[in-house]
Automatic annotation (TrEMBL), chain A:
It comes from the Bacteria. The gene is livM_1. PANTHER family: HIGH-AFFINITY BRANCHED-CHAIN AMINO ACID TRANSPORT PROTEIN BRAE (PTHR30482:SF10), HIGH-AFFINITY BRANCHED-CHAIN AMINO ACID TRANSPORT SYSTEM PERMEASE (PTHR30482). The chain crosses the membrane at residues 25-42, 63-83, 89-106, 118-138, 200-218, 249-268, 280-313, 325-343. This is Branched-chain amino acid ABC transporter permease. Pfam families: BPD_transp_2 (PF02653). It is a multi-pass membrane protein. The lineage of its organism: Bacteria, Bacillati, Actinomycetota, Actinomycetes, Micromonosporales. InterPro entries: ABC_transp_permease, LivM-like.
TrEMBL record, chain B:
Keywords: Amino-acid transport, Cell inner membrane, Cell membrane, Membrane, Transmembrane, Transmembrane helix, Transport. This is Branched-chain amino acid ABC transporter permease. Pfam families: BPD_transp_2. It is a multi-pass membrane protein. The chain crosses the membrane at residues 12-36, 48-65, 77-103, 115-135, 163-183, 212-231, 237-257, 264-284, 290-309. InterPro entries: ABC_transp_permease, BCAA_transport_permease. Belongs to the binding-protein-dependent transport system permease family. LivHM subfamily. It is found in: Cell membrane. It comes from Micromonospora gifhornensis.
Length: 369, 317
């Protein structure tokens, strides 16, 4: 048993080492190949060779779009949970703010009747989500982490209740005819139409690449170092002169920004937003994705988000001993959270530093344990 | 704001608020006890409550009471109530024990960071709630009518007080008085207070820390189980997902009174129940669920230690 475990560990370690020691051009080549693969993925000519990977029940392009939205959300939540170490349980609330802002500003069924195009509503949605992140963060980020978790959970629930109950936000009837993103082919057909989900997927994929570059740079800057110091020891960071509150607020606002972006993209694709989109457990699924992938590591968050969303879609329509597996998805992810935190709190693809933090804590002495 | 609705039936809103608040207070005790000892928000406590509520209904069903049956006769009603409370308490305490053993103890042994506890707690909470949801096919389960809901016991200043309301408030108060005595007078209670003050020192003084922690979870479970049975009696149906919101409100109640403070849980629960009911009269029932969160946020901004202050250890050493 132990030998097998050691063998697996050493193997994984070797992969990590090889990656870190590989020449730069080789790493870039691998990354480029992965990106090309994902751009090619939704084409039938390509994915038909991939055996059981494409989903059978539903349109694979549509599934890929859903997965890409989850990946974007996981990358955003990773800033808050992974980098700054703040447990945000209501991350989906920001998604809702983004989607609803676009809906209210563009849809003909909205009371405002502004009928803006999608592209004009997008920056407004992003700014509003950031403001909502700051508004939520200001009273709560001064408190201990566990209170923050509960209040963010409450925030997501508040948005859901508001969306269900208020006249202005239309409840379950929702907003329809939200415009698509602009652009048309040379023959006049719109790029972002109703039938073909692929352009939306490509759009989100491109945005994910941009967001990842931005987040990576942010993480390697002064801001990122401040986040890590807050995660490791907030008191020590404060004593060293890091304005912890400011940087926690920054993390919250950046996370909110990405959540809002995902919401706005979703609204533009779906062209319908109602309170039924706002299931509270979505926040938990994204959290499970970040933890599963490896919080604090961008690649981990991407893999986690992709894996979790893909598994949900793969479960759909599959029966196992006469039960629908899709029904069990939330229970499954609940158990994933428990098992991961106990056996591998650093996630599947850990951030080296974060893994070392967990390892370090284990060595500390516990009396009477 | 609809002041007419509030003042035309002020007594009615007050008594309903107190009834709801008593249930919040019982559940809040579980949060406050665990928090006082472990400095940990036991997020899965809402599912401990749900387990008790389901167990009571299924226990009555095993005794031959289905959703349409009506109990009659004072003796048999009392018997059903006691049996229901007992089954619910055992089921909830069992769930709490499992959660402690499976989700928390391994993390304690590894000295995991506090957020890790919260994440496993959420995972456990979702997994349990979903298991009930799948088992009940996500449909509401009807409880038998043990105490007739329209049975008016007495009238105070023009407000009718029903048997159910009296039952809920009195039994919740009785449970809390018993708990208060237990914590402050008994040997185990002294152990709990000692562990709450300083775990390591208590362990060095010969207190079995793990056993005390288990006892704390069990007591919290018993309280939540009784709350679950009272909820069945008051509402009459049970859906797997109600625990989440109720748990969040009970947690708010615990923070309101001062988390870690037993008497604070009572004060916070009753207060939150009242505020919520008055607000639902003023703003409409749709917005009722928002009140708890607004209270929580405002409270955390201005007085995060709650009304009576946080302390289980400092209660009286």
């Amino acid at each position: 048993m132990t030998s097998v475990r050691e063998w697996i560990y050493s193997g994984r370690h070797a992969v990590g080492e090889r990656w870190h020691n590989a020449p730069r051009w080789m790493r870039w080549a691998v990354i480029a190949a992965v990106i090309v693969f994902f751009y090619a993925l939704p084409n039938r000519e390509f994915y038909q060779w991939l055996g059981p990977i494409p989903t059978t029940g539903s349109n694979f392009g549509q599934v890929l779009f859903t997965i890409s939205i989850y990946v974007l959300l996981a990358v955003g939540l990773n800033i808050v949970v992974g980098f700054a170490g703040l447990l945000d349980l209501g991350y989906f609330g920001f998604f809702a703010v983004g989607a609803y802002t676009v809906a209210v500003l563009t849809s003909p069924s909205s009371d405002l009747k502004t009928l803006w195009p999608w592209l004009l509503a997008l920056p407004v949605a992003l700014v509003l989500t950031m403001i909502s992140g700051v508004m939520l963060g200001t009273p709560t980020l001064r408190l201990r982490g566990d209170y923050l978790a509960i209040v963010t959970l409450g925030f997501a629930e508040m948005i859901r209740v508001a969306a269900t109950s208020s006249e202005f936000l239309k409840g379950q009837r929702g907003f329809n005819q939200i415009p698509h993103p602009p652009g048309s082919y040379s023959d006049g057909k719109p790029i972002f139409g109703v039938l073909d989900p692929r352009p939306y997927y490509w759009l989100v994929l491109t945005l994910i690449i941009l967001v990842v570059i931005g987040v990576r740079n942010l993480n390697r800057s002064r801001v990122g170092r401040a986040w890590i110091s807050i995660r490791e020891d907030e008191d020590a960071a404060q004593l060293m002169g890091v304005p912890t509150f400011k940087f926690k607020l920054w993390a919250f606002a950046s996370g909110a920004f990405i959540g809002g972006l995902a919401g706005a993209l979703f609204a533009g694709k779906q062209n319908f937003v109602s309170s039924q989109n706002l299931e509270l457990l979505n926040s938990i699924i994204i959290l499970a994705a970040v933890i599963l992938g490896g919080s604090g590591n961008i690649v981990g968050a991407i893999v986690g988000g992709g894996l979790v969303a893909y598994m949900i879609e793969r479960f759909r329509g599959i029966e196992f001993f006469g039960v629908e597996l899709y029904e069990y998805r939330f229970m499954f992810f609940g158990l994933v959270l428990v098992v991961m935190m106990i056996f591998r709190p650093q996630g599947l693809i850990p951030n080296r530093r974060r893994a070392a933090e967990f390892k370090d804590r284990r060595k500390e002495v516990i009396v009477g344990g | 704001m609809n002041f007419n609705a509030l003042f035309s039936d002020f007594g009615g809103y007050t008594i309903t608020g107190l009834t709801v608040g008593a249930i919040y207070a019982l559940v809040a005790l579980g949060y406050t006890l665990v928090y006082g000892v472990l400095r940990l928000i036991n997020f899965a406590h809402s599912e401990v409550f749900i387990a008790g509520a389901f167990a009571a209904i299924w226990g009555w069903a095993a005794l031959g009471l289905d959703r349409d049956s009506v109990a009659s006769g004072f003796g048999s009603i009392m018997l059903y109530l006691l049996v229901g409370a007992l089954i619910a308490a055992v089921a909830s305490a069992g769930t709490a024990t499992v959660v402690e053993r499976v989700a928390y103890r391994p993390l304690r042994k590894r000295n995991a960071p506090p957020l890790a506890f919260l994440i496993t707690a959420i995972g456990a909470s979702i997994a349990i709630a979903e298991a009930f949801g799948i088992y009940t096919r996500r449909l509401p389960v009807g409880a038998p009518t043990i105490v007739k809901p329209d049975l008016v016991l007495f009238e105070v200043a023009g407000t009718e007080v029903t048997m159910v309301q009296v039952l809920v408030i009195v039994s919740a108060l009785a449970m809390m008085v018993a708990l208060d005595l237990f914590i402050n007078r008994s040997r185990i209670g002294r152990g709990i207070r000692a562990v709450a003050q300083d775990q390591n020192t208590a362990a060095l003084m010969g207190i079995n820390k793990d056993r005390i922690i288990l006892v704390v979870f069990i007591i919290g479970g018993v309280m939540a189980g009784v709350a679950g049975m009272l909820y069945d009696i008051r509402i009459g149906t049970l859906t797997y997902s109600v625990g989440f919101l109720l748990g969040l409100k009970a947690f708010t109640a615990a923070v309101l009174g001062g988390i870690g403070n037993l008497r604070g849980a009572l004060v916070g629960g009753l207060l939150l129940g009242l505020v919520e009911n008055y607000a639902s009269a003023l703003f409409g029932a749709n917005w009722k669920d928002l009140v708890a969160f607004v209270v929580l946020v405002v409270l955390l901004m201005f007085r995060p230690t709650g009304l009576l202050g946080e302390s289980l250890g400092r209660a009286r050493a």
